[in-house]
Amino acid sequence: MSNSVNLTSKEWCDLVFEGKNKEFGAYVMRQNSAKRHNLAFMWIIIGFIACIVLYFGVSKYLDMKAEEAREALLKQQQETIVNQMSEEESEEEVEDIKQEEQQEPEEVQEAQQQVTELAIVPDKEVTQPPQLTTETQKNEADISAQNVEGQIGALVSDIKPQEAPKPAAVVEQKVQVEKPVEENKVFTSVEQMPQFPGGDAALLKYIGSHLQYPAMAQEQGIQGKCVLQFVVTKTGSVGEVKVVRSLSPDCDNEAKRVVRGLPKFTPGKQNGQAVNVWYTLPVTFKLQN
């Protein structure tokens, strides 16, 4: 019987307070106890849900702040790398590049040597001045001043043809130097080296702004310089890329990724023609202290 009795019902409350003073506060409290219990349970559930929402909200906010801090640190490291590269290496590297550009290519030197050898004029084209015999020298004592002037004029007219072959040598040199360049050959040095839009300073700035320090290299404390070589094609785009001096696999791959995405260069030229040229570029990775 006790299992079927609802202790919160009005009938049970009236039975308990039968014959008693119902105007007393205990009766009212007992009568409203079910409503109070339900209300308290509802507030407990609402509070629990609010705590869960607050916990996930705070966690999300902290994660977002941590991500912003990491991106700020990475950006600061990239700016530090750019500044150090431009201060420590840009002047030296730009000077080396200019010296290489000013040096005369080996192909042109060889062509000039060939021209010098081929510009020899055959003996049959050279007119030697007439040699005076002993008999002629004896007769000169008796020749008058008028005849002497005539002999000098004749000698001068005989000597002048020796200067004629010089224009032919110049024309031959021009033909030899401006020989056609092989179509698919990749040069290491040319008369006009490839140029990045905006110059070497713009190239270093682009590398620093797009370079991302590998997380594994940061954790292992790896820093230093890796040197790349890549082909600037006759159209100005980046072709084959290879590592000349390695730093670490992660750093090498990151440097190659940035180089492959470089904008088009002004292509190098040899004898006035655009050609494929090897371009050397050092990339520095340095951790912030």
Pairing-aware structural class of the strands and helices?
alpha+beta
C-alpha end-to-end distance: 80 Å
**Average pLDDT reading:** 75
Rounded to an integer, what's the Rg over CA atoms?
48 Å
Largest sheet: 5 strands, mixed
Give the SSE order as H and E letters.
Answer: HHHHHHHHEHHEEHEE
Helix share, percent: 55-70%
Total helical segments: 11
Report the sheet-strand fraction: 5-15%
The number of distinct β-strands equals: 5
Q: How would you sum up this structure in a few lines?
A:
This protein is α+β, with helices and mostly antiparallel strands and 289 residues long. 55% of the residues lie in helices and 12% in strands.
Structure in words:
By secondary structure, this protein is α+β, with helices and mostly antiparallel strands. It has 11 helices and 5 strands. The chain has helices spanning 10-16, 25-31, 33-88, 90-102, 106-118, 134-140, 145-159, 166-177, 200-210, 215-220, 249-260, and strands spanning 186-187, 224-232, 238-245, 268-270, 273-285. Strands 1, 2, 3, 4 and 5 form a 5-stranded mixed β-sheet that branches. β2 (224-232) and β3 (238-245) form a beta hairpin.
Tags for this model:
289 residues, 11 helices, 55% helix, rod-shaped
